[in-house]
Amino acid sequence: MENAQPPESTQPWWQRFVAGLNEFYHAPYRQTMARAARDEEDFFMLLMFAESLGIDNPASFYTLELQPLFLENFHEWHTRMGMDRCPFDHVGCC
């Protein structure tokens, strides 16, 4: 009779232990880190589209060429920021 072991037991015990410790220490902060990443993305989108929204932006020269890349995410961003309709006439996202 052979000893059938589950696939997770193919790793050494210390690797499973380290993976468990990582999960134990990182799990409580996942939501906080996701919220911080979303806040950073929101600020970056504001920085990138600030000139188009009528806000002076000293970095507009550097962010202008990034606008077409982030335009597909613009609709979810402006709805998350509380704008029901798109503030631009030349963008038909709504």
TrEMBL record:
Annotated GO molecular function terms are:
helicase activity
Task: Tell me which UniProt keywords the record has, alphabetically.
Answer: ATP-binding, Helicase, Hydrolase, Nucleotide-binding
Q: Which domain of life is it from?
A: Bacteria
NCBIfam families, per the entry: CC_star_Cory (NF041419)
What's the protein name? DNA helicase
Question: What is the protein's species of origin?
Answer: Psychrobacter piscatorii
